[in-house]
Each structure stands twice: as structure tokens, then as C-alpha cells.
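step 4 of 6: structure.
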Amino acid sequence: MAEFVDFILLGFLAVVALAMTRLRNLFAVAMLSGIYSLLSAVLFVVLDAVDVAFTEAAVGAGITTVLMIGTLALTGTEEKISGRHTMIPLLIVLFTGAALIYGTLDMPAFEDPQAPVHQHVAPKYLRDTPIETGVPNVVTAVLASYRGYDTLGETTVIFTAGLGVIILLGLGQRKPGGTA
Amino acid sequence: MTHNPVLRVMAKLMIPFILLFALYVQFHGDFGPGGGFQAGVIFGAGLILYGLVFGVETALKVFSPTILRIGIAVGVLLYATVGLAGIALNGKYLNYNVLAHDPVHGQHLGILLVELGVFITVASVMMTIFFAFAGRKS
């Protein structure tokens, strides 16, 4: 039954991706990319990665779609038809995809308890988190405590993104008659 | 969009629940899915919805550009300061065990504070990016 759900979700993902490449109306493409993110979030829920699914639904489907539409309101809503050849990009994409699929052949089977990812630090986190931190959600404990450096770095990345937007676009200080 | 009564009424009904849900995700992140990042995005999305329906100028009266600019920096600084507090209390950077008498309580306090820092920065940045883009329309 779970495989059935997986196949339907992956099929929907492929359909949405193909529709995004075919459509010329960029508003429709922005909405479809939101749908793509929601479908990915459902796939993460199927994989029991609820924290990742939460982030994907909030950022990918929510904020990104709003920002895309906000950008389209400033630019245009129709994609220009380019005269360039699309054969070489298609070949590159097909080759990269084939290489990635070839790469998955060496990966351990899905849900294999002997996979290296389940043997390294994961057992320690699962065993020690309730004793050392008293936090029931291991994901939160790993993100905020065990891997606090990484999260500090990620927060700094968000900070830098906001700083860049303020420097480039400005916020709330438009001069009358200016070009901004 | 600002003159559509259906949108205005529905947004007014929904925004308090979106903001409350963001705070729930923030403070329930220790026990269920969620945390500072997701909560910040949801909080920012709630106020972006406010800006979409009632106009960016009105939304900027609630969270002025100065507050947003301060918020962006305060979140990261709060996170980094928690790390420095660990050093000041004879521990290591970002090791929360020394923040309270009991290591587990220290971990609780440290995680709460850094998640709050992530929340403040993420919510401020999300609002900043949208308001900077949307403010250029007029």
C-alpha cells in the first residue's frame, strides 16, 4: 500500500514538472512549483521525515511561491520564446539524470537497518538525547544542540540574504522621484 | 486586492490563528515537529498575508523597517551570545550544559534561546524580502 502511495506521488511530481516546462504563463508555473513543493512535503511525510516536510511545506510551498508571484508582478507574466536550441540542455539533463540514477545503484537498500547512515552517530543520538538534553524530539536536539554550529551558520546565511536584499532593493526609504 | 471585502474579512479571521500557530510550532518544537525556522517562516507568512490584503504600507506600520532591520541582527546576535555565555561560564562555545546548575536544564534553556534567535531572524528576513519586493510596485 505504501509503495502505491509512493508511485502516485512520484507520478504527480513528474506530471507537474513536465507541465512547468511546457507552460508559458509564469503565474501558472509559480503555482505549479508550489504544488510540486507540497507533493515533495507529502513524500517526506511518507518517509517519516516530518520536520523536513514541515520546512518544505512552509518555505517551498508558502514563502517561495509568494516571492515568485511578487517578482512576477514586477517583471512580466509571459515567458519569451527563445530561438536557441534546446537539444544540448536536454542532453545534459538526461546525462546528469542517468549518472544520478547510476549512482543510486550503489546505495544501500531503503529501510536497510545495516546501512552506514544508521550505524555511525545515529544510534548515539537516539540513545543519549533523552538523557543528555531531556528533549523528546531528537531532530530539535540535533539541530539546536549537537549541531549548534551548523544551525548558527544557517541562521547567518538567512541574515546575509536579508542584508543583501536590504542593500540591493532598500526597505521603506524610497526617495520621491528616485529610480527605485 | 485591498478593496475585496471577502479577502479582508477572511484574512482578518485567519491571521491571528496563523500567528498563534507559529508560536505553537516555536514552543512545541521540543516535543513535536517544528522549531525556530518553521515558526519564523509561518509568522512571516502571516504578516505577508496581512501586507498582501491590507497593503505593504499598512503592514510596515506594524513592523517598521527599523524594527525589521534590528530583528534581523538581534536573532543572530542572540544565538552567538548564547554560545559566548557558554565560554563565560567555563564551558565550550555553544555547549549549553553550563548555562544552568543542572546540565539538562542548561540544554533546555540553551535550545529555547537559540531557537528564539532563529525565529526572530527568519521571521524578520522573510518579511524584509517580501516588503522590499512588494514595496517597489508603487
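step 5 of 6: annotate
 - Residues 115-174 of chain A form one domain.
 - Chain A has seven helices and no strands.
step 6 of 6: archive
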